[in-house]
Amino acid sequence: MNLRGKRADVWHLVTFIGFAIVIIFLIYPLFDVFQYSFKNKETGELSLANWKEFFGRAYYMRAFGHSMFISLATTFFSMVLGIPLGFFTTRYKIKGSNLLTTLSVLALLSPTFIGAYSWITMLGRNGFLRNLFSSIGITLPPIYGALGIILADSLQYYPFISLMLAGSLMTIDRSLEEASENLGARATKTFFSVTMPLVLPSLTGGALIVFMMSLSNFGTPMIIGGNYLVLPTLAYNMFTSEVGESPGMASTVSIILMLCAAVVIVLQTWASSRRKYASMLVNRPVVKKLKGAKAFFAHLICYFIVGLSTLPLAVIVFYSFRNTSGPVFQPGFSLNSYKQIFFDVPKTVANSFIYSLTAVVLIALVGTLLGFVIARKRNLAVKLLDPLLMIPYIVPGTVLGIGFIVAFNRKPIFLTGTAIIMIMTYFIRRLPYSVRSAASILKQIDPALEEAGINLGSPPGRTFRTVTLPLMQSGIISGAIMSWVTSMNELSASVLLYVGRTMTMPIKVYLSVADGYFGTASAMSTILLVVTGIAMFVVNKYFNRGSDTFIAA
Amino acid sequence: MTSIKITGVEKRFGELLALSDINLTIEKGEFFTLLGPSGCGKTTLLRTIAGFYRQDKGDIWLGEELINDVPAYKRNTGMVFQNYAVFPHMTVYENVAYGLKVRKLPAQEIEERVKSALKNVHLEGYEARTPDKLSGGQQQRVGLARAMAIEPRVLLFDEPLSNLDAKLRVEMRDEIRAVQKALGITAVYVTHDQEEALVISDRIAVVNFGKIQQVGPPWEIYKNPVNLFVATFVGKINALDVVLGEDLGPGLRRAQAGSLSFAVPSAGTENCTEAVLAFRPEEVVETDQAATGANRLSGTLVSTAFLGTVVSMELELGGNTIVIERHRPKKADIPAAGDKVEFAVPPESCFIFDKQTGARLRAKEGR
Question: Contact B98/A456, CB-based, under 8 Å?
């Protein structure tokens, strides 16, 4: 649509700002990562030494293998947990299914390191569950390493599977299954020949997301992995370790991590575009009421799955109220841990709120404007900008952190140790989600509405303000809240970028766990959990957004 | 009240030539319809008038003003959209007042104009409702009231009734026509529904392949189509491939379709042998009433369709399938499948088209 001839307008400026952001905060730091990776450490010449070393030494290849194994295993177990839950809650009448969904989403959105840390308190060297089991003569395998990572990851990410499966099961028109029955197919035949093929695309999509999240997860393997290195923790160690620090090698690992992520994203895009069945939902699917033993087992399975994923969160909350003396837990309950937070590190709490809120304002503002440009102004520049804005999808936090340190530790842009670098990290990591969501909201708004506004005499700017924006509002706000939650819980990039005065809550939790201050870590984690829970509640209650919002986050 | 003049307008979308050399003058206060199949360019032309597209060539005038470079929001055209485009976040009142607030009219005038616009579309008392509480027809009334309230120079209708059910469509059609006449406002109306076009329009432009095929009043379009496309698109018609043969006396010529022989008007057919003969189902006469014996035919009835005022009969006729109509049928009139049906096609009811170009072949002076 060419409304104003060829004159420059506000949307050209927005496009320009989009390019500036991408170039300064993505391409520039990532280019530095590339440079480091292809440079000889001593001479500064172009060299493939890092790459030879990576593929030549078992130490590195092992981490690669670990990453693949962990991600695959996590995907598998997420499906084992997610498929029955998603299926039972949509097709059978399960009492309290709303509660189940809410709790599973809470597990999904909780900071990644909480689960790991909680499993340590339960099954670690002196964990209470381990002690309980050994008192009855059962010795559990050690939790540190692959087992712990897979356990914590699966219990965090399985809701991607259950929610996406539930979403697509609920949008299959009942008539399709009825047609199959009418044509003479049995219930099982109908399930495998009609229902399954229809939900397969979203199941594949969910599996790939789980793989991706697990692949780039830093907090869980860092806390519970022990000596079991995966790519993100390897990159972190290579970059930060005082002995044998090697930014070149860290960069190489980063690039390999990004390549893996890119492959997954390509697969995911392909999977979701290849077979998407848009259906006109006329007849909602029926929810069957089960009886007797069947009902009992369906409930048992659902409550067991959700219970298992809620357990680590509950344990954390419980521990936060336990009496402490320094790092040591004492019998009884108290608010000591909370007191300690607010007396010792109020700045950390304040930082988390200030940084994430500032970032969210930026994310919502810039994301909405860029989303509009991408949805409505398809010129050449925008077509170029669109994929560039999606880069953060494939840049794991660890990689972005490394890039930021390298790029912004020197002129012309010196940001190391500032609040700005923390805010920009949150901003960049969440921006593509915000752009995507704004663009998809816009695609649901009929362009004829904007045309009607213009036709009635309202200039484009005013039309955007009076017609488009009010219609996007609830989507933008709920998206912003989700961005806020993820920013509050961000660890993988900020752990590389913080200095003492820019410490945030997730970093403090991580450090407290490392130092054995479990009480402080629990209290801090509980605060983050409560914040996450409140945000979810607000989005659900006031914006009438279903669980799809949470998956998009 | 403003006239619209369109000269030499062309619009391309990439390779696709959406509008080609459009020349039209729409008179003040006229109800003008752009009629054509989907993808023919009629909506493109309407949106070009509204300013949502900029033509690549040619000029558009609203009255005395050349509006080529006037942005859409300054054109003061009131558009009624196919999917209503009623703002879902505003009440009925706010929707209708939207264009007036943009124009910074005093509050009292806004109120008066909204009132009167809603009265015109019979929506008094609906001011505080939100669009989700309205039916499709009511939403389209809001769209119409909203477009009228700004007192536009022209009203533009983009298939406004295509999303409504049949009964409502007829009702709204008559209402749109009545309101337009009462206000005396120039209207351009886009539709693919030929019946709607015939009923509602002062004049119709039949559009196909981005070109205007014929412009004229409904009667002219129906009774005197200039080419085979217009003849087949507007109303029902039987078309037979024929070879034109020898003269059959004053003004008549033979047209042979396989074993069938017709006498058809010869005017304008001098340089043509391969042609298409076409006649409308209702133009046939019962054989016993036929004064002359010309074009007497006998077909085998394949099926009948009873439509209340008319029986439509599908006949097999020398390897062709044709449809004829019998009006005000009585039970005894309706033959059974397989029966022979005798009828005649008066030569003056036969249209002859050039098979190659589709152009109508007729006497130079036209009508």
Answer: yes
A5, A448, A455: residue with CB nearest B77: A455
Share of chain A above pLDDT 70, in %: 93
Residue contact B85–A459, C-beta within 8 A: no
Q: What whole-number percentage of chain A has pLDDT above 90?
A: 34
Q: A292-320 vs A112-123: helix axis angle to the nearest 10?
A: 90
Selection from B273, B236, B262, B270 nearest residue B343 by Cα = B262
A471/B73 touch (CB, cutoff 8 Å), yes or no = no
Residues in chain A: 553
Sign of the dihedral through C-alpha A260, A264, A265, A267:
positive
Nearest of A443, A472, A444 to residue A463 by alpha carbon:
A472
Contact residues, chain B to chain A, C-beta under 8 Å: 50-54, 69, 71-79, 81-83, 85-89, 98-99, 102-103, 143, 146-147, 150, 156
Q: What per-residue confidence (pLDDT) applies to A543?
A: 67
Q: How many CB atoms lie within 10 A of CB A2?
A: 12
For residue B82, list chain A residues with Cβ-Cβ distance below 8 A: 448
Q: Give the whole-angstrom CA distance, residue A253 versus residue A473.
A: 41
Which whole number is the average pLDDT over A79-104?
Answer: 90
The CA distance from A256 to A269, in Å, is 20
* The pLDDT of residue A285 is above 80: no
DSSP state of B84: B
Q: What is the pLDDT, as a whole number, of residue A2?
A: 44
Which pLDDT score is estimated for A475? Answer: 82
Q: Is this prediction's pTM over 0.90?
A: no
ipTM of the complex: 0.81
Buried-state track A494-521, b at ≥16 Cβ within 10 A, e below 16: bbbbbeeebbbbbbbbbbbbeeebbbbb
Predicted confidence (pLDDT) at residue A66 exceeds the cutoff of 90: yes
Peptide bond into B217 cis (omega under 30): no
Q: How many CB pairs under 8 A join A and B?
A: 79
**How close B103 comes to chain A (CA, Å)?**
7
The answer to whether B332 and B259 have CB atoms below 8 angstroms apart is no
Residue B68: pLDDT band (50, 70, 90) is very high
Task: Give the pLDDT confidence score for residue B366 in this predicted structure.
Answer: 47
Q: Please determine, for residue A423, whether its predicted confidence score (pLDDT) is greater than 90.
A: yes
Residues A525 and A114: their CA atoms lie apart, in Å, by 7
Residue from the list A3, A448, A471 with its beta carbon closest to the beta carbon of B71: A3
- Pick the residue of B46, B82, B87, B103 with the most A CBs within 10 A to test the interface with A by mutation: B87
* The pairing of beta strand B285-286 with beta strand B340-344: antiparallel
Each as own residue / partner, the long-range contacts of residues B167-175 (CB below 8 Å, 24 or more positions apart, any chain) are B168/B136, B168/B137, B169/B196, B171/B137, B172/B137, B172/B140, B172/B141, B173/B199, B173/B200, B175/B121, B175/B122
What pLDDT, on a 0 to 100 scale, did the predictor assign at position A282? 61
